[in-house]
Amino acid sequence: MSNGEGEGRPLVLVSNDDGPESPGLRALLEALNDGRVDVTFIVPEGPRSSSGMSLTFHKPLRAWEREISGVRGYVVSGSPADCVMLGRLRLLDRTPCAVASGINIGDNTGLQDIYASGTVAAALQAALLGIPSSAFSMMVERDGIMAGEREMLEGFAEASRYAAEATRWICEHGLPEGVHLLNVNFPLRIAEPATVELTRPVRRKYENNVVERMDPRGFPYYWVWGRRLGGYSEGTDAWAVYTRGAVSVTPLNIDLASPGSPGMDDLRARLESVGRAKD
To answer: What is the pTM of this model?
Structure first.
């Protein structure tokens, strides 16, 4: 697929986990499609929130061409991670300079959200494929109450200007050494002049709960949910968005290993003794 008309312009791939009808997707496509970069999208056919890094191995994937907000791209019958993999390895005719995922309906602050989020997973899959990437999400509530449609659309329009600028910066400069992707979260409304905080993920954002109920036939079923905590530590992403009303930019690294951690030598010796015991 040829994506864009500008000879020699860099290509940005947009994905998400909310599907093709998302107002955050449309706002981001419109903000990026200003002639400075070529833009395309590959998104799941429907909402895939909290799908994480799931990949589809047990059935074939389908892809359909579609146009959204004047941009041509694809809708795929898989997960956000599937979308990025198909784009990089099959559907696109060149490697994107950046992958921009979002703008998600709801913030993805905190490790509990980051590890579960399909929005972050699309950016993570891009990073694993060697493409600098960013995940963009926006809080859509005020005092625990969902924002109205008009306020939400205005919020996405504001946030998309910052998301597009961050994406162009990545195309121009790449990401700093040791940073593989950015997790960017916006408040519902961005104050002017905007405050941007460089943050770390808060570890716990929710108090998890599982509710058990009975269906009409007497069999149990379960709802998994979480009540959002408050009082987040200064310097964290949730603190920036919920307490400060700021834009949170969290640099992330895909290398999770920590082999030099204190105490690991003792475990290594213990495991090596198992092998010697067999002899």
So the answer is: 0.91
